[in-house]
Design a protein that fits this description.
The protein is an alpha/beta fold. The protein is 52% helix and 14% strand. The protein is built from 12 helices and 7 strands. The radius of gyration is 23 Å and the shape is elongated.
Length: 300
């Protein structure tokens, strides 16, 4: 169970990172490290139970961890409105209450597997090599298979490109969107303000990474007490999709502009999301989902 939970978190690591970041305890860099350390811990617990290594220590450590996480989930259930606590990533959604029930069941199972004196088992020598390989893999894999954004950018850094001609032409075509009574009202008379420092984010309402990237940006801005006056979301999609996007990404105070799909694709060359930083209408930086961190806020 611990190994499965760790793998499912790793598969949806981007969502898991943002969930951990939403508690506002760490900056995003340390959040990416801490998230992977949690996954490493689950993998190690699972493997050490399988091989009965340090059985007494692992049993007690697991019991303490389950109790602490249960107390944490009680806090989440009382003070937050989370639909998914991300115990099993995005693929298996559990509410805080459901996860509390799961933890209580795990604690019960821990007592079922408890030996009379919690004696450490002696592993046979034929598994020593396998144990070392698997334990080393458990520590390394979360950091290598899904590298942190800061590492990813160093390894896979590339020049971000957009069609600047299409971008500047589109500035006169986007239509302002006002949100009234859970509906969208279009205002074709409004003109976008490009004075000073501005950020334009081009997204599709149905794009998973667009949602994650914009949500990450909005959380960072809130945590650092930065106003969103100079952030403009250029979005395309259905009304329902746009309304859900705005709610899910916590961007009620951002400026929304409707862009035609073909115009968005022409600008971004088919890659979403794209974050375009401007100063006095001049493009000074182009970023993608992996580039969103606190350093972007210094520009804002």
């Amino acid at each position: 169970m611990f190994i499965i939970a760790a793998i499912l978190k790793l598969i949806s690591i981007d969502s898991f990172e943002i969930y951990v970041y939403s508690f506002g305890l760490l900056n995003f860099l340390f959040t990416t490290i801490f998230s992977r350390l949690l996954i490493v811990g689950e993998l190690l617990i699972g493997l050490m139970f399988i091989f009965k290594m340090k059985y007494k220590l692992v049993w007690r450590t697991t019991l303490i961890i389950q109790i602490l996480f249960t107390l944490f989930l009680i806090y989440v259930m009382i003070f937050r409105n989370d639909d998914n606590c991300h115990c099993f990533g995005d693929l298996i959604e559990l509410s805080p209450l459901e996860s509390i029930i799961k933890n209580v069941a795990i604690i019960g199972v821990l007592f079922l597997i408890k030996t009379t004196r919690l004696q450490d088992y002696k592993a046979t020598s034929k598994f020593v090599g396998l144990r070392k390989v698997l334990l080393a893999a458990a520590v390394i894999i979360p950091f290598v298979v899904t590298p942190m954004d800061s590492v990813y950018k160093m390894i896979y850094s590339s020049e971000k490109e957009i069609s600047t001609v299409d971008f500047y032409q589109t500035l006169d075509k986007v239509v302002a969107m006002d949100f009234v009574d859970n509906d969208i009202v279009f205002d074709s008379t409004a003109q976008i303000n490009m004075d000073g420092k501005q950020m334009v984010v081009i997204v599709s309402s149905g794009c998973k990474y667009c949602r994650l990237g914009v949500k990450k940006l909005s959380m960072m801005m809130r945590k650092n007490d930065i106003k969103s006056d100079n952030v403009n979301i250029f979005i395309w999609g259905s009304r329902e999709g746009i309304l859900n996007f705005r709610e899910e990404t916590l961007t009620d105070d951002f400026s929304y502009w409707h862009i035609m799909p073909h115009e968005a694709i022409d600008i971004t060359l088919g890659k979403f999301p794209v974050f375009i930083m401007l100063k006095e209408k001049e493009i000074v930086n182009i970023s993608d989902f992996r580039d969103i961190d606190e350093s972007l806020l210094r520009y804002s």
